[in-house]
Amino acid sequence: MHVLSIILPLYLALPTTAGSLKPRATYTDCTDSQKQLLSAAVTDAGKMASAGASSLRSNSASSLFQTFFKTTDSSAMDQVASALEKIAEEASQPGGGVVTYSCSPGSISCQSGGFTTTGYASTDGTNGQVNTCPAYFDLPASSDDCTVLDQRTSALHELGHTKGVLGNEVYGYQEIMNIDTQTALSNAESYAFLRSVAQVARLKQVAQ
């Protein structure tokens, strides 16, 4: 059996001139069903990010933060909370934000060796673009297993890139458990799974 590793790479675009920076949030190259799935994932990602930022601001998620970021330093928690707030704001205003979403990979290859890419993001420092590969739509829309990459967690990851979470990336739940604080703070996957774990835990508490 061949196991494909799923990655979500970042491509950083060159800056544009100030005159070209315009709000342009929209969905392109999507079928109706793809647009519905991606829009729902972005909305859920925004809700997860908002809840995560609130938990960090109220200092009620320090234990979970320690698990993913190996610190409870207030400046580190503030950095992550600020990024999550930017993601939440972007995701809450479809049609009015500065990120464009595409259901096409564009010019980027979705398959490289043993890796299958589900999506990638680019930014010029203000505007951003999130592109998906076909494999993105094979992910579950959501999962009760917090170690599983689903569409909403993937969307949160990519939105993190458009809001400045940039760095050499480490992918996968088990892998991000073994990185240091500085690597985690610039690793979008750490932000995404922090919120995924917290979301699943909250839903299980509600169900009890």
From TrEMBL:
<dbReference type="InterPro" id="IPR050414">
    <property type="entry name" value="Fungal_M35_metalloproteases"/>
</dbReference>
<keyword id="KW-0732">Signal</keyword>
<feature type="binding site">
    <location>
        <position position="161"/>
    </location>
    <ligand>
        <name>Zn(2+)</name>
    </ligand>
</feature>
<dbReference type="GO" id="GO:0005576">
    <property type="term" value="C:extracellular region"/>
</dbReference>
<protein>
    <recommendedName>
        <fullName>Neutral protease 2</fullName>
        <ecNumber>3.4.24.39</ecNumber>
    </recommendedName>
</protein>
<comment type="similarity">
    <text>Belongs to the peptidase M35 family.</text>
</comment>
<dbReference type="GO" id="GO:0004222">
    <property type="term" value="F:metalloendopeptidase activity"/>
</dbReference>
<feature type="active site">
    <location>
        <position position="158"/>
    </location>
</feature>
<keyword id="KW-0862">Zinc</keyword>
<keyword id="KW-0482">Metalloprotease</keyword>
<keyword id="KW-0865">Zymogen</keyword>
<dbReference type="Pfam" id="PF02102">
    <property type="entry name" value="Peptidase_M35"/>
</dbReference>
<keyword id="KW-0479">Metal-binding</keyword>
<feature type="binding site">
    <location>
        <position position="157"/>
    </location>
    <ligand>
        <name>Zn(2+)</name>
    </ligand>
</feature>
<dbReference type="InterPro" id="IPR001384">
    <property type="entry name" value="Peptidase_M35"/>
</dbReference>
<dbReference type="InterPro" id="IPR024079">
    <property type="entry name" value="MetalloPept_cat_dom_sf"/>
</dbReference>
<comment type="function">
    <text>Secreted metalloproteinase that allows assimilation of proteinaceous substrates. Shows high activities on basic nuclear substrates such as histone and protamine.</text>
</comment>
<keyword id="KW-0964">Secreted</keyword>
<keyword id="KW-0165">Cleavage on pair of basic residues</keyword>
<dbReference type="GO" id="GO:0006508">
    <property type="term" value="P:proteolysis"/>
</dbReference>
<feature type="signal peptide">
    <location>
        <begin position="1"/>
        <end position="18"/>
    </location>
</feature>
<keyword id="KW-0645">Protease</keyword>
<dbReference type="GO" id="GO:0046872">
    <property type="term" value="F:metal ion binding"/>
</dbReference>
<keyword id="KW-0378">Hydrolase</keyword>
